[in-house]
Design brief:
The structure holds 2 protein chains of 2 kinds.
Chain A (H helix, E strand, L loop, with lengths): L3 E4 L2 E5 L4 E7 L3 E9 L5 E6 L3 E5 L2 E6 L4 E6 L8 E9 L8 E2 L3 E6 L1
Parallel strand pairs in A: 2-11
Antiparallel strand pairs in A: 1-3, 3-8, 4-5, 4-9, 6-7, 7-8, 9-10, 9-11
Chain B lengths: L3 E4 L2 E4 L5 E7 L5 E7 L5 E9 L2 E4 L7 E3 L5 E6 L8 E11 L2 E7 L3 E5 L1
Parallel strand pairs in B: 2-11
Antiparallel strand pairs in B: 1-3, 3-8, 4-5, 4-9, 5-6, 7-8, 9-10, 9-11
The chains are: A mainly beta, B mainly beta.
Chain lengths: 111, 115
């Protein structure tokens, strides 16, 4: 089955710094989504981005489907950005939203 | 709108007991999903449903059953709980357009411990 790899596994930043999180996937996908899991466990959908670039405030994401990777950019990080960031993909053989999750990147933003 | 809600939030079971987790969504979404999350890992799909009255297996379906009798509800059952089913369970839903599913919205999770 499809493999989803995220890097780095852990990241520590000072408040105000920028960061880039990467997601590589091993096969074609119907869709790709980025999620933030906050320290209380809630999963928030950040982006639905099967291809192209989207921006939402200090966050932006780019997916290059032909090269099988996606990037999540966090600018001017804040302590509330702490948590785990997951990339998840729906393999090309399915349109049912059966997401395969990566292992996540754990981000800690220090004040 | 409440979005996606899950009942209960916490539960402790003894090995061999049964229970049902309830997921409800008020967004009129067609597709619904049950995932489990184990420590230090991403989420894994247990079962999913593409419409009322339909269910299908995901990556890790063994030991679980599901039902989708109403569009807004998706139930996850454990018939005979095992310690390996200790996990956090998340329900999600998504809308469909032209045969494609879009953003998934997650409930707050149910923390289940089996002793």
């Amino acid at each position: 089955g499809i493999q989803v790899e995220q890097s780095p596994p852990d990241l520590i930043l000072q408040e105000g710094a920028n960061s880039t999180l990467r997601c590589n996937f091993s096969d074609s996908v119907n869709n790709l989504q980025w999620f933030h899991q906050n320290p209380w466990g809630q999963l928030i959908n950040l982006f639905y981005i099967p291809s192209g670039t989207k921006q939402n405030g200090r966050l932006s994401a780019t997916t290059v489907a032909t090269e099988r990777y996606s990037l999540l950019y966090i600018s001017s990080s804040q302590t509330t950005d702490s948590g785990v960031y997951f990339c998840a993909v729906d393999p090309g053989s399915s349109n049912t939203g059966k997401l395969i999750f990566g292992q996540g990147t754990t981000l800690q933003v220090k004040p | 709108n409440a979005g996606v809600t899950q009942t209960p939030k916490f539960r402790v079971l003894k090995t061999g007991q049964s229970m049902t987790l309830l997921c409800a969504q008020d967004m009129n979404h067609e597709y619904m999903y049950w995932y489990r999350q184990d420590p230090g890992m991403g989420l894994r799909l247990i079962h999913y449903s593409v419409g009322e009255g339909t269910t299908a297996k995901g990556e890790v379906p063994d030991g679980y059953n599901v039902s989708r009798l109403k569009k807004q509800n998706f139930l996850l059952g454990l018939e005979s709980a095992a310690p390996s089913q200790t996990s956090v369970y998340f329900c999600a839903s998504s809308y469909v357009l032209a045969g494609f599913s879009y953003e998934q919205y997650f409930g707050p999770g149910t923390r289940l411990t089996v002793t």
